[in-house]
Amino acid sequence: MSLKIHTQPFAGLLLLAAGLGLAACGDATQEAATDDAAVSKSDPLAVIDAADLEQHVKVLSSDEFGGREPASEGETLTIEYLRDGFAELGVEPGNGDSWFQEVPLVAITGKPEPLAIRGDNVELDLDVPTQAVTWTKRVTEEVSLDASDLVYVGYGVVAPEYGWNDYAGLDVEGKTVVMLVNDPGYALAETERGELFNGRTMTYYGRWTYKFEEAARQGAAGAIVIHETGPAGYPWEVVSGSWTGPQFDLVSENRNMDRAVMEGWITQDVADQLFGAIGENYESLRDAASQPDFQAIPLNATASTRIENTIRESTSRNVVARIPGSTRPDETIIYTAHWDHLGADPEAEGDGIFNGAVDNATGTGGLIEIAEAFMAAEQRPERSIVFLAVTAEESGLLGSRWYAEHPIYPLAQTVGVINMDSMNVYGPTSDVVVTGKGNSEMEDYLAKAAAMDDRVLVGEEHPERGYFYRSDHFNFAKKGVPALYAESGSSFIGPDAEAAAAYAEAYTAERYHKPADEYEEWFDFSGAIQDLRMYYRVGEMLANSEDWPEWAEGNEFKAAREASRSAD
Question: Rounded to the nearest 10 degrees, how much is the dihedral formed by the CA atoms of 325, 326, 331, 336?
């Protein structure tokens, strides 16, 4: 879920860039484009061109596109630009005769009352959003939770791969479950039992999205996650900022009535008060939940609240393009990138447009470049290649979720997914960061492709933060399709390496999800071209083989893949 942070353009960073010599990066981009032109056009890699990618980013992140908000004029400009780009290459529409797949969206703006906790030894009226953040996914004007019994269910995990079931023998129908964030592996990573789950690396069972989904499957009326900065990977301010205001979701036939009545977060301080009322404390009950024999604990208290909703429905669109396979067209490889960003803030002083140049005009433009390379190859790929530019990623990965739930091409026959989100505009690197490293055999192909440029694969710096579950490939992984999400590394090379590293670090602090994420003349696209050519090689290897990459043994998505392939 994205958080809009309103800020003035980053004049300070421009001065920093100039001081570091980054203004010269624009020359590097032009040199890269010249080098590309000198390469024989019989090589499909040659048409993945820095100048072309730069032009795509310029257009897609221009003020005219208004921040590419779903269901806006900016959406229309964006999807038509992509349609025309694919059509000019000779790529076919990917949804029958249409280039688009409609995605029904709903925005729910909730007005929650304070969360009232009542028990023999506790009486709390939790303020929203300083002590609690609550909402409902149910598409209805009002919901209420009335004296629902509170039950502490540890991590709220049912993970057969790890022999773990926090709901074993428990009936939570109509009750409100209280859960820890992350999974048992995080808590035990530095102990003698750190082999549980995936150690410090978060599994899907550690994501808050999973916890709310599982609580609903168990019949809970309410679902509450306890915030703790370390295992969550972000401070409370991210929770209070991201889950207040309009919340987007897909429109479902049952209006999400299968979800819990209320979902939300509470602070660690509140949890300590709640646990103290039964003679325990946060640390002791967190430790207890890390034991394989943990059993749920009634909290001898109830939760009540009421939420009024304002509901707005709209329709957005995914863009779908396809190159049919020459011999096995029913087998598909998908390249994904999200075309949307955060739109504009009409109340901002000065620049209120969230242009989203890096996030994700770069990846969106990259889809066109890779399509051009496949069209330039002497022979068409044996398997089909699909280019999927999805909507509403910034609203919760909704466009990719809609496709995964309503696939145009059967997921059992989808070989793998390659996702591109926020590409490198700083310079070339000698390494490639794999998000969720060790998840699947897709990485074997990536390693071969990277080695062709003397690059090596490395893991992410903070695997406990669960970044693998925060971009569009994840919705395919949930359905069992092996999915790859990689980024340029941090080991920059070349004469501007030091400056590039400094700017890459500054991007997160100064530009990410801010109006300052704009196209700049000094962008160096040579690193993005490195990556795009690498991703092309991965797809080309898979497209012209009979291989079916698998998930690693013990991976939480392996069972779903095996089930879908055996049923096909």
Answer: -20
How far apart CA 274 and CA 186 sit, in angstroms, is 23
Ranges of beta strands (E only) in 244-293 are 247-250, 262-266
d(CA 34, CA 427): 16
Reading the block at residue 58, the tokens are: 């310029």
Strand segments (E) across 153-243 = 158-159, 164-165, 176-180, 222-226
Q: What CA–CA distance (Å, rounded) separates 230 from 50?
A: 39
Angle of helix 73-89 relative to helix 50-60, nearest 10 degrees? 160
3-state secondary structure of 344: strand
122: amino acid identity, one letter: V
Among 419, 479, 403, smallest CA distance to 103 is for: 403
Among candidate residues 401, 443, 440, 397, the one with its CA nearest the CA of residue 421 = 397
Instruction: State the burial class of residue 235 (Cβ atoms within 10 Å of its Cβ: 0-12, 13-18, 19+).
Output: exposed
Q: What is the pTM of this model?
A: 0.85
Sorted by sequence, the CB contacts under 8 Å of residue 161 that are 6+ apart come out as: 554, 555, 556, 558, 559
Its sign, for the CA torsion 83, 86, 89, 92, is negative
Cα of 351 vs its chain's centroid, Å: 26
CA angle 6/12/13 to nearest 5° reads 85
- d(CA 146, CA 111) in angstroms, rounded, equals 17
CA distances from 216 to 102, 165, 212, 318 (A): 27, 15, 6, 28
Indicate the residue type of 403. Answer: Y
**Per-residue pLDDT in tens (0 to 9) along the chain, 568 residues:** 333 322 333 333 333 333 434 344 444 444 443 344 333 346 899 999 999 999 999 999 999 999 999 999 999 999 999 999 999 999 999 999 999 999 999 999 999 999 999 999 999 999 999 999 999 999 999 999 999 999 999 999 999 988 999 999 999 999 999 999 999 988 776 555 456 788 888 999 999 999 999 999 999 999 999 999 989 988 998 898 888 888 889 988 999 999 999 999 999 999 999 999 999 999 999 999 998 889 999 999 999 999 999 999 999 999 999 999 999 999 999 999 999 999 998 888 889 999 999 999 999 999 999 999 999 999 999 999 999 999 999 988 999 999 999 999 999 999 999 999 999 999 999 999 999 999 999 999 999 999 999 999 999 988 888 889 999 999 999 999 999 999 989 899 999 999 999 989 888 778 888 899 999 999 999 999 999 999 999 999 999 999 999 999 989 999 999 999 988 7
Residue with tokens 């690197």: 429
Biggest CA-to-CA distance, the chain = 79
Structural tokens at position 361: 């005009």
Residue 537 token pair: 């090689």
- DSSP, res 25: H
